[in-house]
Design a protein that fits this description.
Layout lengths: L2 H9 L6 H20 L8 H15 L10 H19 L22 H19 L3 H12 L4 H8 L3 H36 L1
Length: 197
C-alpha cells in the first residue's frame, strides 16, 4: 500500500494504519532529529521529539494535501520545525562532550593512538557541521545523512532547488575550510621531513 493509499484510509477512519506510516519513517525521522540536536548536545531528546513529530503529523493529517508535498517531505518539515522550536528553548545552554554522556565506541583491536585520532577527527567534523548556520546544517544533514534529493530538501526548507544547491556548496566549503588546517598539518610535517633527508 502506498503512502497516499494509507493516508486516504486513515482519513476515512482506519486510524490503526497510522502505525504503518510511522514504521516506514520512524528511523529516518529519528536519525534526522538526532543529527539536528547534536549542535546543542541535546541528542537525548531525539526520541521524544520524534514521537512529538508523529503526534503532530497525526493531529494535522486531515490538512495534508499531496498536491503541495509528499508525505515524507511534510513529515520532515514537521520534524525540523519541532527541533527548531526545542532548540530555541535551550538556546543558551552549553553542554560539554563529557556531560553529554557520549562515550566513543572503538574496536578492541584498535591501537590507542588510532582510536584517539579517529575520535578526534569525528569530533572535529561534528563540530564543523555544528558551527554551520541552521539552514546550511539542515541541508547538509538531509543530503548526506538522510540521502534526500534536492527537490525534497527544497520543500522541507522552503527554498528553491538552486538555493539548496547553494546552501550545500557553502556548507561543504565551510566544513572543508574549518577542517583544512587540521588535515593539512600532518601532510606539511611529512613534506618537511622529506626535505630534511
Amino acid at each position: 500500500m502506498t503512502d497516499s493509499q494509507l493516508i486516504r484510509e486513515i482519513k476515512d477512519g482506519n486510524v490503526e494504519l497510522y502505525n504503518e506510516l510511522m514504521r516506514r519513517y520512524e528511523r529516518k525521522i529519528l536519525a534526522f532529529i538526532f543529527h539536528m540536536l547534536k549542535s546543542a548536545q541535546l541528542e537525548s531528546l531525539a526520541e521524544d521529539l520524534c514521537n512529538e513529530t508523529f503526534y503532530k503529523a497525526y493531529r494535522s493529517l486531515h490538512s495534508f494535501r499531496e498536491v503541495e508535498a509528499t508525505f515524507s517531505t511534510w513529515l520532515y518539515t514537521i520534524a525540523r520545525n519541532t527541533v527548531l522550536s526545542e532548540l530555541r528553548k535551550h538556546k543558551n545552554i552549553k553542554v560539554s562532550l563529557e556531560q553529554s554522556g557520549y562515550v566513543p565506541q572503538t574496536a578492541a583491536e584498535a591501537l590507542p593512538e588510532q582510536t584517539v585520532l579517529r575520535n578526534e577527527k569525528v569530533t572535529m567534523v561534528r563540530d564543523a557541521i555544528n558551527n554551520l548556520p541552521e539552514k546550511q546544517r539542515s541541508a547538509l544533514i538531509l543530503r548526506e545523512y538522510d540521502q534526500l534529493d534536492y527537490q525534497e530538501i527544497a520543500n522541507i526548507l522552503g527554498q528553491t532547488v538552486s538555493s539548496v544547491k547553494s546552501l550545500l556548496f557553502r556548507a561543504r566549503a565551510s566544513v572543508k575550510l574549518q577542517l583544512e588546517p587540521y588535515f593539512l598539518e600532518p601532510l606539511f610535517e611529512e613534506y618537511e621531513g622529506m626535505n630534511r633527508r
